[in-house]
Amino acid sequence: MSGLQPTVRTRILVREIMNSPVIISSPDETIKEIATKMSDFKVGSVVVTESDKPVGIVTDGDIVTKVVARDLTPSGVYARQIMTQPLHTIDAGKEVTEAARIMRKLRVKRLGVTYRQKLVGIVSISDLSAVTPELVDLISEKALIMTGELRRQRGYLTGYCDSCTQWSDYLLESDGKFLCDECRGEVIKET
Fold it and tell me: Is the pTM of this model over 0.70?
């Protein structure tokens, strides 16, 4: 085991965090039908397609600002009337940091995810937020490697303590859990 080198993950790809399958509708579906799909599938958007090609997206925000706020009847408004177009996309193999840059630049909260020019998923700003702690960990680990601080005493790991959930550069395994110095001290005091 001493000959094994730890692997350090250096990037997170869009395909790892995207939502799939994509919930779709036609341009002629009513907003009531689309809202029902959103509720049934617990999603915040539906991609509008024609001939299996995405032509736009209807989001929960579109429904609020373009239908509800205007006091329109959802069963009398159609996807083609309120959809945001075009659907901006990103390749599944791109890094999530690139997705964040695109969303910020275009001021959108969702991107279609493509693989070989075919729509395979959706990535949202909330998906990016969910992996932010992991991105911070990657940056921290890379900084430690670059500064040489990664050379610690043998046996210590870096990560979140399984007991107090705080970040520690000095985790050790104890009874199947990875514990920081402080929590290992608490365990010793209790026994």
Answer: no
Bridge pairing between strands 167-174 and 118-124: unpaired
Same domain, yes or no: 47 and 85: yes
Nearest-angstrom CA–CA distance, 71 and 57: 21
Q: Which domain holds residue 102?
A: 14-130
Q: 188 pLDDT exceeds 50?
A: no
**Neighbour-count burial of 13, counting CB atoms closer than 10 A to its CB (0-12 exposed, 13-18 middle, 19+ buried):** middle
pLDDT-derived band of residue 131, with 50, 70 and 90 as boundaries?
A: confident
Confirm whether 137 is domain-assigned.
no
Q: Which carries the bigger pLDDT value, residue 138 or residue 90?
A: 90
Number of domains in the chain: 2
